[in-house]
Specification:
It is a single chain. By secondary structure, the chain is mostly helical. It has one domain (11-256). The protein has 10 helices and 2 strands; from the N terminus they run H-H-E-H-H-H-H-H-H-H-H-E. The protein is globular, with a radius of gyration of 17 Å.
Length: 257
């Protein structure tokens, strides 16, 4: 199976990226951080987890519910003997897509208009590299000006604004709920969709020492996120108790989202 084939995918993928590139700018991102990253709802983790059933409109590889991809990723990480915290990251890395439960069409955060939830991310407030998926849409972005933009050299990725979506939402949700994970876990969660950085080696001028240190961790995680995609879904009932026990080690039974 070929992965990330954007030349031979359905029109929904291209439409999503066109809309994302057009509307995801610094102003929009700041608005969404303020609107969606104030965590006032309080629910059981597993009830929310099982609601992440939307089909990712940006994914050219698969047309199945994200729910199965969670377990596929986590199981591959477990099989290779990585630590429990990384298995957890595999399980929950796309959990931020619950954003659609409180989203709207105009923000691209609904089930039908997902450009504010999914897709490869990019840094807003500076020039978008030409190595991005569908670079022809860069001209639609109002922030696509000079290379450095609003930032200064070696500012660090934790101090820039990425296009808004499930990565940033989950990162902030876990921080808000004081989930105790190592720094590399938070890098995997926050930047796994920033392919421009970890796959195309863009944004080196913005990197600080911490980014350089944890970039290999993000690249390692990406191998499991991408290459475990499989149309043959696992028998989830056989492994569910293991992951329920794993989640209890790290995440409160009820969370703010």
């Amino acid at each position: 199976m070929d992965f990330r084939d954007y030349d031979n995918c359905n029109d929904n993928v291209r439409t999503l990226y066109r809309e994302q590139r057009k509307y995801q700018n610094l102003s929009f991102v700041k608005k969404c951080l303020k609107k969606y990253c104030t965590f006032k709802n309080y629910n059981n983790f597993w009830e929310l987890f099982e609601k992440v059933a939307l089909k990712d409109l940006s994914d050219p590889d698969l047309d199945c519910e994200n729910f199965y991809h969670f377990y596929q990723t986590a199981e591959a990480i477990r099989k290779d003997g990585h630590p429990k915290w990384m298995q957890l990251v595999g399980l929950i890395h796309d959990f931020g897509k619950i954003l659609y439960l409180k989203g709207c069409d105009s923000d691209g955060t609904s089930e039908s208009t997902q450009w504010g939830i999914v897709g490869d991310t990019f840094i807003v407030g500076c020039k978008i590299p030409g190595t991005i998926v569908y670079p022809e849409y860069n001209k639609l972005n109002m922030d696509n000006h000079d290379t450095m933009g609003i930032y200064h050299k070696n500012i660090g990725l934790n101090n820039v604004y990425c296009s808004f979506g499930h990565d940033e939402y989950l990162y902030r949700l876990l921080k808000h709920n004081q989930v105790n994970l190592p720094p590399e876990a938070y890098y995997m969660i926050r930047f796994h969709s920033l392919y421009l950085w970890h796959d195309k080696n863009e944004y080196s001028y913005l990197e600080n020492d911490e980014d350089i240190k944890y970039k290999p961790s993000v690249k390692l995680f990406n191998k499991y996120d991408l290459y475990t995609k499989d149309k043959d879904n696992k028998n989830i009932s056989e492994i569910k108790e293991y992951y329920r026990s794993l989640v209890r080690k790290f995440i409160p039974e009820n969370i703010y989202w």
